[in-house]
Amino acid sequence: MKDYLKQTGQFLMGMFIIFCALFIWIQNPAAAAETGQQEEKEKLLLNARAAVLMDADSGRILYSKNGEEVYPMASTTKIMTLIVALENNTSAENQIVTASERAAAMPEVRLGVRTGETYRMYDLYYAMMLESFNDAVMMIAEGTAGSEEAFAELMNEKAASLGCTQTHFITPNGLDASDEIGVHSSTAADMARIMRYAIGNEDFLKITQTAEYSFTDCDGERSFAVHNKNALLTMMDGVLSGKTGYTADAGYCYVCAVKKDDRTFIAALLGSGWPPHKRYKWADVQTLLNYGDKNYHYQTIDISKEVPERQISVIGGEQDFVSVRAEQTSYRLLLSTEDEVRVVSALPGQLKAPVESRQQLGSIQLAVNGVPAATFRYVTTEEIRAKRGRLEWLLRK
Predict the structure, then answer these.
(1) What range defines the domain where residue 316 resides?
(2) How far is 365 from 237, CA to CA, in rounded Å?
(3) Which one from 64, 65, 100, 132 is the annotated catalytic residue?
């Protein structure tokens, strides 16, 4: 009897689960598809406590593990440091920077500059991005904005302009720090957004793709050779950029951009292990990139098919109706087989003459799994003049 009751209970529970799943699918098939995709994504074995895979073209997040959670980000900070420096120093190749006592006192990892020595700003960029030298970073910050604090303000302003709402920069080098606002921190999603912006800068790409670089101080008394610590450059093809980082609070971090055929992926990892697991980040980033390469490909959405040409009425015009169509006939989206694309459109019920040719109106939105991915407008296909009054008609005769 007990076995019978147990089997009956298991059967009823199974039927209940099936019923719930069916109910969810009927009520919201997009949510059901997204749930199925998330189950697939959850199979990814990542060491990182936060990870994001982003489509660089659209900025759409394709995979996220705690992607919006705030954590320290260590020397991946220097992605923003370089962008701010590049955009604020227009003649870096000829700009001379003097090492302050503060710069010379920066902790390891360091170039070993001495107080009063002078260097070219442009050379310091390579020392910062290839070897992550903290004294070079401080010289860049002070040479750009006058002080570390003023440079951090520029970094935070830039982050805000990129939509990074959960990022707070205190130091230009990414060393663990805190102030009255909070700790030096970001999210995997925000760091991906910053890298997405950075790879649009040719100088940024040139510097971060360089394998080795040699330079001297301005007096020619000391020579230096720096080597790129971004091991992914030699691990796979198509690497556009990347920056590693480590602090005791942040763990091993990594942010990169990689081109695979016609797709560009950005991967961001925060807290991908702690010593002695220095190589966890390389396994994690390859897992993310392989997932993107396997599952996401470009598909062309025929907007004209989804939103065919139609007519709306015109008040006070020489014609009673005007034809309108989508301003763009097609759009390419990076999609997986699990993604659901919906086209939602809205048009005014009528227009008032005069109507211009290719006049924009209404809206057409492409949404992937319920999240807006692109927005367009309708346009009119012809000009409709306002109907002339009787007096105007007589004067024209």
Answers:
(1) 300-380
(2) 35
(3) 132
**347 & 291 share domain:** no
**5 part of a folded domain:** no
Catalytic residue among 64, 75, 186, 272: 75
* Rounded CA separation 207/82 (Å): 10
State whether 263 and 227 are in the same domain: yes
**Model pLDDT, residue 27:** 39
pLDDT top residue among 369 and 35: 369
DSSP letter assigned to residue 386: B
Specify if 25 maps to a domain: no
Q: Is 223 a catalytic residue?
A: no
Which among 248, 272, 295 is the end of a domain? 295
Q: Is 78 a catalytic residue?
A: yes
User: Is there a single domain that holds both residue 203 and residue 347?
Assistant: no
Q: Tell me, yes or no, whether 247 lies in a domain.
A: yes
Contact status, residue 51 vs residue 66, Cβ threshold 8 Å: yes
Percent pLDDT > 70 in the chain is 87
Do 121 and 193 lie in one domain? The reply is: yes
Q: What is the CATH number of the domain that holds 256?
A: 3.40.710.10
For 116-149, write each residue's pLDDT tens digit.
999 999 999 999 999 999 999 999 999 999 999 9
Instruction: List the one residue out of 171, 141, 159, 189 whose CA is nearest residue 74.
Output: 171
> Where does the pLDDT of residue 21 fall: very low under 50, low under 70, confident under 90, or very high at 90 and above?
very low
Quote the CA–CA distance of 268 and 254 in Å, as a whole number: 6
Judge contact between 350 and 320, C-beta under 8 A.
Answer: no
Is 357 an active-site residue? no
What CATH number is associated with residue 331?
2.60.410.10
* Burial letters 91-108, b for 16+ CB under 10 A, else e: ebeebebebbeebbebee
Please pick, among 65, 78, 158, 243, the residue that the annotation labels catalytic.
Answer: 78
Answer for the pair 347, 362: CB distance below 8 angstroms, yes or no: yes
Does one domain contain both 257 and 335? no
Confidence (pTM): 0.83
Phi-psi map region of 377: left, alpha, beta (phi>0 left; psi -120 to 50 alpha): beta
The answer on pLDDT for 34 being more than 80 is no
Q: 295, 327, 357: which is the final residue of a domain?
A: 295
